[in-house]
Amino acid sequence: MLIQLAGQLEAGQPDEAMKIYRRIIQPTIEQTNNRAYEDAIRLIRRVGDLMKQQDRMPEFREYVEGLRARYKAKRNFIKLLDGVRAA
User: Fold this and answer.
1) Where are the domains of the chain?
2) pLDDT of 14-55, one tens digit each?
3) How far apart are CA 42 and CA 38, in angstroms?
4) Angle at which helices 2-9 and 14-29 pack, to 10 degrees?
């Protein structure tokens, strides 16, 4: 599975892991159900953790704001996204 591959890449190739996570996030959100939204949020947090380790939080904040703008009509997803800290 792609998520397992990304997890294996986190330590040695974090950029590749983030690419995989980001590739999975969009179709997960588009499933339009709360379980999928929760799964997407978990992946978004993984991306955030990896970006924090690389001191790339401004880029992560921009990514989160892009998701917020793109999926603004998905209220339940946005509520969950509000809980993601991009500090």
Assistant:
1) 2-82
2) 999 999 999 999 999 999 899 999 999 999 999 999 999 999
3) 6
4) 150
Two structure tokens written together for 56: 């790339």
pTM comes to 0.92
CB neighbours of 38 closer than 8 A, spacing ≥ 6? 80
Residue 18's CB is within 10 A of a number of other CB atoms, namely 25
At 25, give phi and psi (nearest 5°): -60, -50
Instruction: Measure the CA angle with vertex 41, ends 38 and 42; round to 5°.
Output: 90
Tokens of residue 8, six digits: 């294996």
The span from the CA of 54 to the CA of 59, in Å, is 11
DSSP string, 4-69: HHHHHHTTT-HHHHHHHHHHHHHHHHTT-SHHHHHHHHHHHHHHHHHHHHTT-HHHHHHHHHHHHH
